[in-house]
Amino acid sequence: MISFKTVCGAAVLSLFAITAAKADQLADIKAKGTLVCGTMGTFEPFSFQDPKTRETVGYEVDLCQKVADSLGVKLELKLLAVEARIPELTQGRVDLLSAALGYSDERAKQIDYSLTSFVSRQMFMTKAGSGISKIADLKTDKISAPKGSSSEKYVRALVPDAKLLTFQDPPSAFLALQQSKVKALILSELALKKFQMQAGDGLEFIKEPAAIEYWGLGVRKGEPAFLDAVNKALKDMEASGDAQKIFDKWIGKDSPYTLERTFILDKPVSNPVLAEVK
What we know:
Residues 1-23 form the signal peptide. Keywords: Signal, Transport. Belongs to the bacterial solute-binding protein 3 family. The chain is 38% helix and 24% strand. The chain has ten helices and 13 strands. A hairpin with a 6-residue loop joins strand 3 and strand 4.
């Protein structure tokens, strides 16, 4: 006859084994041989569909690939809407977020951030001749932003009386500006430059940045081994020169943007620095 003590002991051991398995995401990823990386897919040059190959490519895709390579596993991409990023991660449907994930204390309560993956200037764009030269000029105007994005939060903080219209993705928010449904659009500087190049003349930036934003890769809470592995991959990219090559390919001297990289991948993320609206 099996004793009550034996049954209880077996149950405790079983529960411990299940908890340990859930707590070691790194081991799970290596066991299945695949890293599932959540990215946006509509945000050139960070992650977007190559018109020739129809594959999702970009700066943040290359970062995911390097992390997968460092773990010795295959990369699987999952395309996410802006507002779905954190829920998809916390519910375990993706292993890692590489999706324009600006740091905030609020988000850091829900997920863990890697070291810095990008530093972005958040900017406002208007139509030429709008008469708007500074952020304070927006006052009660209509402004578009992607739903669930940090850009949305900056509008609420900087011009709280403005009428904020949110959209499913950056292209939809930009279309609202083109169709004069809003007076201004807020996005990362690179995203706005891309839209400006596509649209041609007739668009201009408000010169002062709305915020300087630090991005990181997102990892579920309670996964220290996996977070350490992601950070090691970023540090290795910086040390090997791959970080600069990836930047130059999509954003720097080998890209249409020709921007200079002013950050490195081995620094902790921090809260954004907001503009002083006058």
